[in-house]
Amino acid sequence: MQFLSLDEAAQALNVTRRRAQALVEKGQLRAHRVGGRWLVQADDVYQRRRMVARRGRPLNASTAWKQLEHATLARDDNEQDAFRRLLLTRAAHRDGYVHPSLIAEVRSNERHVLGGRDAADAAGLPVGISDDDLDVYLRAADLEELANAHVIRFDAAKANLHLHVVPAGTWPFTVDQRFAPLLVAWLDLADRGDRAERLVREQLLRNPS
Protein backbone atom coordinates (compact mmCIF):
# COMPACT_ATOMS: atom_id res chain seq x y z
CA MET A 1 0.00 0.00 0.00
CA GLN A 2 1.34 3.42 -1.00
CA PHE A 3 1.29 6.42 1.34
CA LEU A 4 1.80 10.14 0.85
CA SER A 5 2.90 12.78 3.32
CA LEU A 6 0.38 15.45 4.23
CA ASP A 7 2.23 17.95 2.05
CA GLU A 8 2.24 15.54 -0.90
CA ALA A 9 -1.47 14.85 -0.46
CA ALA A 10 -2.22 18.58 -0.34
CA GLN A 11 -0.19 19.16 -3.51
CA ALA A 12 -1.94 16.31 -5.34
CA LEU A 13 -5.35 17.71 -4.38
CA ASN A 14 -4.38 21.33 -5.04
CA VAL A 15 -5.41 22.39 -1.52
CA THR A 16 -3.57 23.85 1.44
CA ARG A 17 -1.85 21.64 4.01
CA ARG A 18 -4.44 22.73 6.58
CA ARG A 19 -7.23 21.66 4.27
CA ALA A 20 -5.62 18.25 3.68
CA GLN A 21 -5.26 17.78 7.44
CA ALA A 22 -8.91 18.72 7.93
CA LEU A 23 -9.91 16.03 5.41
CA VAL A 24 -7.88 13.51 7.38
CA GLU A 25 -9.42 14.56 10.70
CA LYS A 26 -12.93 14.34 9.23
CA GLY A 27 -12.18 10.81 8.00
CA GLN A 28 -12.46 11.74 4.32
CA LEU A 29 -8.88 10.65 3.72
CA ARG A 30 -7.60 7.56 5.51
CA ALA A 31 -4.30 8.16 7.24
CA HIS A 32 -2.02 6.87 9.99
CA ARG A 33 0.09 8.92 12.35
CA VAL A 34 3.66 7.60 12.45
CA GLY A 35 6.37 9.35 14.43
CA GLY A 36 4.37 12.56 14.63
CA ARG A 37 3.67 12.61 10.86
CA TRP A 38 0.49 11.85 8.98
CA LEU A 39 0.81 9.23 6.24
CA VAL A 40 -2.17 9.42 3.91
CA GLN A 41 -3.34 6.48 1.81
CA ALA A 42 -2.50 7.39 -1.77
CA ASP A 43 -5.52 5.54 -3.18
CA ASP A 44 -7.85 7.86 -1.27
CA VAL A 45 -6.04 10.93 -2.56
CA TYR A 46 -6.10 9.82 -6.20
CA GLN A 47 -9.75 8.73 -6.01
CA ARG A 48 -10.73 12.09 -4.54
CA ARG A 49 -8.76 13.92 -7.23
CA ARG A 50 -10.51 11.94 -9.98
CA MET A 51 -13.91 12.64 -8.43
CA VAL A 52 -13.26 16.38 -8.29
CA ALA A 53 -11.90 16.44 -11.84
CA ARG A 54 -15.14 14.92 -13.12
CA ARG A 55 -17.11 17.84 -11.69
CA GLY A 56 -15.86 20.10 -14.47
CA ARG A 57 -13.97 23.35 -14.64
CA PRO A 58 -14.45 26.09 -12.05
CA LEU A 59 -16.85 28.89 -12.90
CA ASN A 60 -15.76 32.41 -13.73
CA ALA A 61 -16.32 34.98 -10.99
CA SER A 62 -19.57 36.40 -12.38
CA THR A 63 -21.13 32.97 -12.85
CA ALA A 64 -19.90 31.82 -9.45
CA TRP A 65 -21.73 34.67 -7.70
CA LYS A 66 -24.90 33.99 -9.70
CA GLN A 67 -24.66 30.35 -8.64
CA LEU A 68 -24.37 31.45 -5.02
CA GLU A 69 -27.53 33.55 -5.13
CA HIS A 70 -29.84 30.54 -4.80
CA ALA A 71 -27.45 27.76 -3.80
CA THR A 72 -27.89 25.52 -0.77
CA LEU A 73 -25.30 23.26 0.80
CA ALA A 74 -25.52 19.56 -0.03
CA ARG A 75 -25.44 17.04 2.82
CA ASP A 76 -22.88 14.77 1.19
CA ASP A 77 -19.27 15.62 2.10
CA ASN A 78 -17.98 14.94 -1.40
CA GLU A 79 -20.65 17.16 -2.91
CA GLN A 80 -19.75 19.91 -0.45
CA ASP A 81 -16.10 19.72 -1.39
CA ALA A 82 -16.87 19.75 -5.12
CA PHE A 83 -19.15 22.76 -4.59
CA ARG A 84 -16.43 24.59 -2.67
CA ARG A 85 -13.87 23.96 -5.42
CA LEU A 86 -16.29 25.03 -8.14
CA LEU A 87 -16.73 28.41 -6.45
CA LEU A 88 -13.09 29.18 -5.69
CA THR A 89 -13.07 31.60 -8.61
CA ARG A 90 -15.67 33.86 -6.97
CA ALA A 91 -12.60 35.99 -6.17
CA ALA A 92 -8.81 35.99 -6.31
CA HIS A 93 -7.66 34.89 -2.86
CA ARG A 94 -4.55 36.51 -1.38
CA ASP A 95 -3.17 35.94 2.10
CA GLY A 96 -1.21 38.73 3.74
CA TYR A 97 0.03 40.02 7.04
CA VAL A 98 -0.86 43.38 8.56
CA HIS A 99 0.36 44.67 11.92
CA PRO A 100 -2.15 43.54 14.58
CA SER A 101 -2.71 47.16 15.66
CA LEU A 102 -4.22 47.84 12.22
CA ILE A 103 -6.64 44.91 12.08
CA ALA A 104 -9.46 46.90 13.72
CA GLU A 105 -9.02 49.65 11.14
CA VAL A 106 -9.23 47.17 8.26
CA ARG A 107 -12.26 45.52 9.87
CA SER A 108 -14.13 48.84 10.20
CA ASN A 109 -13.53 49.99 6.60
CA GLU A 110 -17.03 50.27 5.15
CA ARG A 111 -15.83 49.95 1.55
CA HIS A 112 -15.21 46.28 2.15
CA VAL A 113 -17.37 43.30 3.11
CA LEU A 114 -16.35 40.90 5.86
CA GLY A 115 -16.53 37.15 5.39
CA GLY A 116 -15.28 34.11 7.31
CA ARG A 117 -15.58 34.19 11.07
CA ASP A 118 -16.81 37.79 11.14
CA ALA A 119 -19.75 36.98 8.86
CA ALA A 120 -20.57 33.85 10.86
CA ASP A 121 -20.41 35.80 14.12
CA ALA A 122 -22.72 38.47 12.67
CA ALA A 123 -25.19 35.67 11.83
CA GLY A 124 -25.24 34.73 15.52
CA LEU A 125 -22.96 31.68 15.48
CA PRO A 126 -20.51 31.27 18.38
CA VAL A 127 -17.40 30.93 16.25
CA GLY A 128 -15.50 33.81 17.85
CA ILE A 129 -13.86 36.50 15.75
CA SER A 130 -10.10 36.66 15.64
CA ASP A 131 -7.45 39.20 14.78
CA ASP A 132 -5.40 36.30 13.41
CA ASP A 133 -7.87 35.43 10.66
CA LEU A 134 -9.78 38.31 9.07
CA ASP A 135 -11.59 37.69 5.78
CA VAL A 136 -12.20 40.76 3.63
CA TYR A 137 -13.99 40.99 0.28
CA LEU A 138 -12.87 44.00 -1.75
CA ARG A 139 -13.01 45.30 -5.28
CA ALA A 140 -9.94 44.70 -7.42
CA ALA A 141 -9.54 48.46 -7.86
CA ASP A 142 -9.18 48.90 -4.08
CA LEU A 143 -6.43 46.33 -3.53
CA GLU A 144 -3.42 48.58 -4.10
CA GLU A 145 -4.82 51.37 -1.92
CA LEU A 146 -5.58 48.94 0.93
CA ALA A 147 -2.17 47.28 0.67
CA ASN A 148 -0.35 50.60 0.75
CA ALA A 149 -2.45 52.16 3.51
CA HIS A 150 -1.90 49.26 5.89
CA VAL A 151 1.54 48.08 4.71
CA ILE A 152 0.26 44.60 3.94
CA ARG A 153 2.99 42.02 3.44
CA PHE A 154 2.10 39.27 1.00
CA ASP A 155 5.34 37.37 1.55
CA ALA A 156 4.98 36.91 5.32
CA ALA A 157 5.37 33.41 6.79
CA LYS A 158 2.11 33.77 8.73
CA ALA A 159 -1.01 35.41 7.36
CA ASN A 160 -3.62 37.17 9.46
CA LEU A 161 -5.53 38.79 6.60
CA HIS A 162 -7.34 36.85 3.89
CA LEU A 163 -8.22 39.10 0.98
CA HIS A 164 -10.86 37.99 -1.51
CA VAL A 165 -10.42 40.29 -4.50
CA VAL A 166 -13.53 40.51 -6.68
CA PRO A 167 -12.91 41.36 -10.37
CA ALA A 168 -14.20 44.57 -11.89
CA GLY A 169 -17.88 44.46 -12.84
CA THR A 170 -18.59 41.46 -10.59
CA TRP A 171 -19.19 43.05 -7.16
CA PRO A 172 -22.09 41.01 -5.69
CA PHE A 173 -22.80 42.97 -2.51
CA THR A 174 -25.23 45.83 -1.89
CA VAL A 175 -24.08 49.35 -1.04
CA ASP A 176 -24.70 49.06 2.70
CA GLN A 177 -23.82 45.37 3.10
CA ARG A 178 -21.16 44.74 5.75
CA PHE A 179 -21.09 40.94 5.93
CA ALA A 180 -21.05 38.21 3.32
CA PRO A 181 -23.88 35.63 3.34
CA LEU A 182 -23.39 32.65 5.62
CA LEU A 183 -22.77 30.30 2.70
CA VAL A 184 -19.91 32.52 1.54
CA ALA A 185 -18.55 32.59 5.10
CA TRP A 186 -18.55 28.79 5.04
CA LEU A 187 -16.63 28.78 1.75
CA ASP A 188 -14.00 31.09 3.26
CA LEU A 189 -13.53 28.87 6.31
CA ALA A 190 -13.69 25.55 4.44
CA ASP A 191 -11.17 26.71 1.84
CA ARG A 192 -8.46 26.92 4.49
CA GLY A 193 -9.68 24.18 6.86
CA ASP A 194 -10.70 26.53 9.67
CA ARG A 195 -12.29 24.58 12.54
CA ALA A 196 -15.17 27.07 12.66
CA GLU A 197 -16.44 25.78 9.31
CA ARG A 198 -18.13 22.86 11.12
CA LEU A 199 -20.46 25.14 13.09
CA VAL A 200 -21.32 27.13 9.99
CA ARG A 201 -21.91 23.96 7.97
CA GLU A 202 -24.24 22.55 10.63
CA GLN A 203 -26.25 25.78 10.66
CA LEU A 204 -26.53 25.80 6.86
CA LEU A 205 -27.76 22.20 6.87
CA ARG A 206 -30.31 22.95 9.59
CA ASN A 207 -31.58 26.04 7.80
CA PRO A 208 -30.94 25.61 4.07
CA SER A 209 -33.03 28.60 2.95
N-to-C CA distance: 44 Å
Would you identify the CATH architecture of the largest domain? 2-Layer Sandwich
Widest beta sheet: strand line-up: 4-7-6-5
How many β-strand runs? 7
- Give start-end ranges of low-pLDDT stretches: none
The amount of beta strand, in percent, is: 5-15%
Major β-sheet annotation: 4 strands, mixed
Rounded to an integer, what's the Rg over CA atoms? 17 Å
How many DSSP H or I helices?
10
Shape: globular
Number of self-contained structural domains: 2
Q: Strand pairing plus helix content: what structural class?
A: alpha+beta
Mean of the pLDDT scores?
89
Question: Helix-strand pattern, N to C?
Answer: EHHEEHHHEHEHEHEHH
Share in helix: 40-55%
The CATH topology assignment of the largest domain is Beta Polymerase, domain 2
CATH class of the largest domain: Alpha Beta
